[in-house]
Specification:
The structure holds two protein chains of two kinds. Chain A has five helices and 56 strands. By secondary structure, chain A is mostly beta strands. Chain B has two domains: about 190 residues, Immunoglobulin-like (Sandwich); about 90 residues, Sandwich (Immunoglobulin-like), CATH 2.60.40. The chains are: A mainly beta, B alpha+beta. Strand 49 of chain A pairs parallel with strand 7 of chain B, so a sheet runs across the interface.
């Protein structure tokens, strides 16, 4: 009898956020204690596995273990628990420091005959390496056996078999995660036969590297996704980041265009960081895919609110995307689907390693071919030319006592609507968004402290041209400096301090019709001969600093307090604000934690809002108070449930105003807006186990706004424009034999609010009719329902793998309402539907 | 809503504009409809820009009026401020009866037209004297307020006028009330000169010979079938009421006058140009086949498919500076 244990991969949070930094060393099993094989199971020849959730302390001792999956025999669970409780580990390290983690541990009960010991002095007759088919990864811990002599492979997959008599022998390779492998070898006297065995993994499912860890976190609500975990979720085209939109607290984006509408906040109020560096957009236009290739993403943390002091400049949520470290072996991947093609390659570089990835869309080429066949008349008049590409590269290298990285990434989107009547080079509509970043980072363990430094430079540009009446050209050159020092003063107290500074040089040129008072009869889409313009450039400095203390006040109570100070200096005008934040975690009973948090948040106005001609340079920061209260409970069968209630109050919001200054000039914008959001989020999630993975989430929310006091309806409150009362999402993915995976995503969402029209007025100077609005946002579109489905199939060859997927959005072809389109005098409207049934076929090769 | 979000929605709107929605198109006039409003200075019929102290004549083209159609006029004097007047505030116009009740709104006049009779069109008119001293002072102050920014900011050197907002309300039995907003441009060459603007913008790099040309209403000289020079709408056959039109798809164009030389706005200052006429077409029956979306038939050149029976066609031209003209033709 022999018991095999498998420690799955590296640490990864399951709805848990890393505190500072990342896992620098996974836990390592030092002392293994075999479990007692239940006698009746031996007699009945029952084999199988038990999945355990094991909490390993900072000292490497097992603090807690529980059975997540008891396996096929009732005696397996208790036996495994008893054995695991005696294990000893080298503790995991986070940022170079020992840290408590929770891992998923599988105990395999395998019946096996006893092997005679082999004297070491016998000559080696067979040596080589065992690697995995498809991935060429070394297989550690595999048993290589011939003629009753066996040996285990090392961490590099190598083995040396001694004492086997010459002749033709049957060699068997056994590994708990791999299919049996048998081969005949001819061994000759006095010679060493060198071989490489490529064995097949039982399942090349995307969850194989996922280990769930429970690092202490400072946010009361954080949802972590890994690329491998969610790659096969339907409707996402394998894009990890799109999965955020199915998490609790996130409203549905119209047409799926990639807006992050978090807890009733404006989409631009959710901040996005890539390895600590803010980026201006998470998705390419239309939300087709994210601007960072999922192939280089290790994980992302999504904070719907009450996030830690290290984040700022937003009133909504935060997304922190972490790119992975490049592999030390040569690997690559290529993928094509309906929308784009992508290529990624990586390998060793000296003592370090590097990767490079590139993706380019071909939607423009597809539309050029498809549109004339679908709608020849429209194709003759209107040419739509959208395209995007993005790229990422990263080199990591051990340097200066720590781990250094040099990274660069960027994204480039362009969208044109060219009508037949357009002059050359002057399309009816042109949109270009470009950004890139290049920088260095360094993580340095300093005894009980860790320092993380990121320095990056980059550029954003955003250009829009619409006919002759509107043009906006902006360019922002930026420098990001971010440093974070964390220090564990004692087992109960951790301190952290950091700076988060942006220096931007903004240059812009804009021409547009003059800004009218809100509610004016004007047509923003008309070609007006009267446009006004503004050009400018200047430095724009946004320094910030924070401190945070994480204190385990009682064995069951942990308190986190932080303070963040932000400042904005824009064109000589400096404004500053202070945000205190706090959260508390109380372990009610084992497996159940109560959480609560409160904090202030601030956000500077957008640059265009402080324009002298089109905005108001005197605008102050928008402010918000976040409150949340929740409970988390671990459940059997690798499941857990979270319930979170939240309330947000927003004030000093930037809104349009009818007010004029003492000189009679329209102020255009003011800080006179208020907001209020209340909601409840429920998430029941099953981690991957026995082939099944998924979650169901439900969000109830109500988000209100109050406009400027000069609004005729003031002090009435109205709904937030993207308020959705109920958002329900079900995500399920199931692994079948022979490398098939099937999945579904089902969403049911309340319709967005809209403003009814009560009449219309003819603008006699343009000949166009303008609608007269009724009570703002007082009605709702019909509810949204969409079911998506996906099938993945993978073929594994000797040194590479090939996979294919079919991802079908809106499989029921339901006509969901997104907007209302009006007739000329607003007396009739029709529903503009969301996407119809939309299949996408993709192919991927990995080597 | 951010600029990016607005931009995406604008892109979606552009796409939708090309969609076939199934609506009755804007160009088809089945019932009473206000189609255009223009103004002119009393005594100088061609001039559309009005100076303080002059009297303005307002005219509204109402097609297919019903018996008992009432046209009422209201005005809102501009102030030395950028605040919107109630006449141009959509949130104020959700209840047209408020126009008559609000003290800041000037009632100009109201007329009931007893019967449509044989004339299918109604051209309602009203006069608004801007002559009393208080009104003149108010207008001059408002104009000075508008001219002020142009002294220091080249981007505003084309906005050398202020607007007097006028609302025409059309009420007909059994039909939802209709309203139209006409912005009467109030300006004065003397006031522009008093600000020193012609000197400021006369030299390099502006090279502006005349900073502001008082606007004249354009003219519809003819509507032509089969023009040999479609861009200028010359050649071919000019159409008059009673002419027989061929069936099938035909090409019509509108011939106007040459338009005035003007200065348009630019971030760097006024830029010489010529008025760009905007043409709009309406019919009581028939089809403009190229017009999708809301069915607004526009452009100097349009394809048209005539109906089987008699029909009327209205052609409206606007000069983008507030000037307008129209013509109607009836075809058997």
């Amino acid at each position: 009898m022999r018991i095999l244990a498998l420690l799955l991969g590296s640490l990864l949070a399951s709805g848990e956020a890393p505190p500072p930094g990342t896992l620098t060393r996974p836990p390592e099993l030092l002392e293994f204690v075999p479990a007692e094989y239940p006698a009746d199971a031996v007699a009945a020849r029952i084999q199988g596995s038990v999945v355990l959730a094991v909490v390993i302390g900072e000292d490497g001792e097992v603090r807690e273990a529980r059975v997540a999956d008891p396996g096929p025999h009732p005696g397996f669970g208790p036996a495994a628990l008893h054995a695991v409780a005696q294990f000893r580990f080298r503790p995991a390290e986070i940022d170079g420091k020992p840290a408590a983690v929770e891992i998923e541990y599988r105990y395999d009960f395998v019946l096996k005959r006893e092997q005679p010991a082999v004297p070491a002095e016998q000559p080696v007759v067979l040596e080589g390496r065992v690697v995995e088919r498809g991935t060429r990864s070394p297989v550690a811990g595999a048993t290589v056996e011939a003629e009753g002599v066996s040996v285990e492979t090392g961490a590099d997959g190598r083995f040396a078999l001694r004492g086997v008599a010459p002749g033709v022998v049957v060699v068997r390779v056994a590994s708990p995660e791999h299919a049996s492998f048998v081969v005949n070898e001819k061994l000759e006297q006095g010679k060493v036969r060198v071989v490489e065995y490529r064995i097949s993994r039982r399942h090349y499912d995307p969850y194989e590297a996922v280990v769930r860890g429970d690092r202490e976190r400072t946010e009361v609500t954080v949802r972590t996704l890994t690329t491998e975990e969610v790659r096969t979720i339907p409707g996402t085209q394998g894009d990890t980041l799109k999965v955020i939109q199915t998490l609790p607290g996130v409203a549905r984006s119209p047409f799926g265009i990639g807006l992050l509408i978090v807890r009733g906040s404006e989409p631009n109020e959710t901040v996005v960081y890539v390895d600590g560096v803010p980026i201006p957009q998470l998705f390419h236009f239309g939300g087709l895919t994210s601007t960072v290739n999922a192939d280089v993403v290790e994980a992302l943390d999504f904070f719907p609110g009450n996030y830690a002091s290290r984040f700022g400049r937003g009133l909504g949520g935060a997304v922190e995307l972490r790119t992975r470290e490049p592999k030390r072996e040569w690997h690559g991947a290529a993928q094509i689907d309906l929308f784009d093609g992508r290529l990624e390659i990586e390998g060793p570089v000296g003592k370090g390693s590097a990767y490079a990835a590139l993706r380019r869309s071909w939607i423009d080429a597809v539309l050029a071919v498809a549109l004339p066949r679908i709608n020849p008349d429209a194709a003759n008049d209107l040419r739509v030319a959208p395209r995007y590409y993005d790229w990422q590269t990263k080199l990591t290298y051990p340097v200066l006592g720590g781990l250094g990285s040099v990274f660069a990434y960027g994204s480039d989107d362009k969208l044109e609507f060219v009508r037949a009547a357009d002059a050359p080079g002057r399309p009816s509509f042109y949109l270009s968004t470009v950004f890139w970043r290049i920088g260095v980072s360094h993580r340095l363990p300093l005894g009980a402290a860790t320092n993380e430094l990121v320095l990056a430079a980059g550029r954003n540009s955003f250009d829009v041209l619409s006919g002759d009446s509107f043009g906006l050209l902006t360019e922002v050159a930026s420098i990001t400096l971010r440093d974070r020092l964390s220090y564990r003063l004692s087992p109960q107290l951790r301190l952290e301090a950091g700076v988060d500074t942006l220096a931007n040089r903004l240059s812009f040129s804009v021409y547009a019709p003059p800004v009218e008072s809100p509610g004016s009869v004007s047509d923003p889409f008309s070609d007006q001969p009267t446009t006004v313009g503004e050009t400018g450039d200047g430095w724009w400095l946004s320094p910030a600093a924070w401190v945070e203390a994480d204190w385990r006040a009682l064995p069951r109570l942990r308190l986190v307090g932080g303070l963040r100070v932000d400042a904005e200096e824009r064109f000589g005008v400096t404004k500053a604000w202070v945000d205190p934040r706090a959260s508390a975690f109380y372990d009610l009973v084992p497996g159940t934690t109560l959480v609560a948090a409160a904090g202030l948040f601030g956000s500077a106005p957008d640059p265009e809002e402080t324009s002298r001609v089109f905005g108001n340079p005197d605008l102050a920061a928008e402010r918000g108070l976040h409150l949340s209260l929740g409970v988390r409970r671990d459940l059997p069968w690798s499941s857990k449930v979270e319930l979170t209630g939240y309330y947000k109050e927003l004030w000093s919001l930037v809104v349009a105003t009818r007010a004029v200054d003492p000189d009679g000039r329209l102020l255009k914008l003011s800080n006179g807006g208020h907001g209020e959001t209340i909601g409840l989020e429920l998430l029941a999630r099953r981690e991957f186990a026995q082939g099944l993975f998924g979650w169901i989430s439900w969000t109830w929310s109500r988000s209100l706004r109050q406009d400027d006091p000069t609004d005729p309806r003031y002090p009435q409150w109205r709904l937030f424009g993207l308020d959705q009362t109920h958002v329900v999402a079900l995500v399920l993915s199931y692994r079948l034999p022979r490398e098939w995976i099937v999945g579904t995503r089902v969403r049911a969402v309340s319709g967005n609010p809209y403003t009814p029209f009560v009449g219309a007025i003819l603008d006699a100077d343009t000949g166009r009719w303008q609608c007269i609005p009724g009570a703002p946002l007082s009605r709702r579109l019909p509810g949204f329902f969409q079911a998506d489905a996906r099938v993945d199939k993978r073929w594994v060859f000797e040194s590479w793998m090939f996979s294919m997927y079919l991802d079908v959005q809106n499989v029921t072809n339901r006509e969901n309402a997104e907007f209302r389109f009006r007739n000329f005098d607003c007396s009739q409207t029709v529903i503009v539907p969301s996407i119809p049934v939309f299949p996408s076929l993709g192919f991927r090769a990995e080597w | 809503m951010t600029a990016v979000t607005r931009t995406l929605l604008l892109a979606a709107a552009l796409l939708l504009a090309a969609c076939n929605t199934g609506f009755e198109p804007q160009y088809r006039v089945n019932d009473v409809r206000i189609l255009a409003v223009r103004d002119r200075v009393q005594g100088t019929p061609a001039t559309a820009d009005v100076a303080p102290g002059e009297t303005v004549v307002l005219e509204a083209l109402v097609a297919r009026p019903r018996s008992g159609t009432r046209v009422s006029w209201f005005g809102c004097l501009p102030a030395a401020s950028e605040a919107t007047t109630p006449c141009a505030d959509r949130s104020f116009l959700d209840d047209p009866s408020r126009l008559a009740r609000d003290r800041s709104i000037v009632p100009i006049g109201s007329t009931v037209y007893p019967a449509a009779g044989g004339d299918p069109d109604l051209v309602a008119s009203a006069t608004l004297p801007l002559t009393d001293p208080a009104t003149v002072t108010t207008l001059e102050d408002a104009l000075d307020f508008r001219l002020g920014p142009a002294v220091s900011q080249p981007a505003f050197a084309c906005r050398l006028y202020t607007d007097l907002d006028v609302i025409a309300v059309v009420e007909a039995p059994g039909v939802r009330p209709q309203a139209a907003l006409k912005r009467v441009r109030i300006t004065s060459l003397q006031a522009i000169a008093d600000q020193g603007l012609p000197e400021i913008y006369s030299g390099d790099p502006y090279n502006v010979a005349t900073l502001y040309n008082l606007n004249l209403n354009p003219a519809v000289q003819s509507v032509r079938l089969g023009a040999t020079d479609p861009d200028a709408c010359t050649g071919g056959t000019p159409l008059a009421s009673g002419d027989a039109l061929p069936g099938g798809r035909i090409v019509l164009c509108g011939q106007g006058d040459t338009g005035q030389e003007i200065n348009v706005c630019d971030a760097k200052g006024p830029k010489g140009s010529r008025e760009d006429y905007q043409w709009q077409w309406y019919v009581s029956a028939g089809e403009f086949p190229d017009e999708g979306g809301i069915g607004n038939a526009t452009g100097i050149l349009v394809d048209f498919i005539r109906p089987a029976g008699p029909f009327s066609m209205w052609t409206i031209v606007r000069d983008q500076r507030g000037g307008a003209a129209w013509a109607r033709r009836d075809f058997p």
